[in-house]
Amino acid sequence: MSHAAPDARPGAPRGHNVVIERSLNLPLYRRANAGRRWPAAWAAGLVLFLLGPRAEADPRASSSLTATRLNVHDFAVIPSESGPFSYYRIIEDPVEPFIRGSYRPPLETVVVGVDISAGLRDSVRLRWKWRVLALPAGGDECRPGFGDSAAAVYVTWRRFLKIYSLKFVWSTAGKRGQVCQDDSNLFLAHQTVVLETGGPLGTWLTEEIDLAAEFRAHFEHGDPQASVPELLGIGVMSDGDQTRSVSEGDYTGFALLH
Prior knowledge:
Helix content is 3%, strand content 37%. It contains one helix and 16 strands.
């Protein structure tokens, strides 16, 4: 996994440039269980935590790949995973539009996501930019009752009837590199990975993950020969309902490298 230098361009002050905002509340997915805190097809409840393997991305490997950008306007609310009020909006920044999630208690959690088209499901890397503007008080995704994130990015795969989900979070208090694992079953496997923690606030960071390496590290015991199923979707969430606190994060620059 690689980290690029902070990028201050999107959303930064630019004199008299006009920034246009619009709400983001289009339907996309359906949920089977209204009690879940993320897409039911992507993840399940958090019940324990552990320190697990981390997959390290080689930044040199992306230089020969083709990057396909994911349009933030294609992200939409997952209605059956979400409360009745969407707190996400698209900021039409002159440099680059981005998604802003602005959670305020006592709102119900809302998730937005996008399907991956058939031609991109064998992509080898995912890149995105995010920043946090407000961290939920005491948020710690590996601590029961404190599982709120200023920013979270979901990556999901599907093999036959089984869904695999990794949730990469920007945590308030979680330990960077910590992995929280829930009980897997025949149809679902999920882990939460603390990618960033604490500040800086208001500063864009770029993340890039090796999709195959991450899948193998978390779901195949690091076996370099294990097959990797097709990529299914990407989602984002900012929330503060467990800690009953303000939580705010921005997302942009999603690109699949293939």
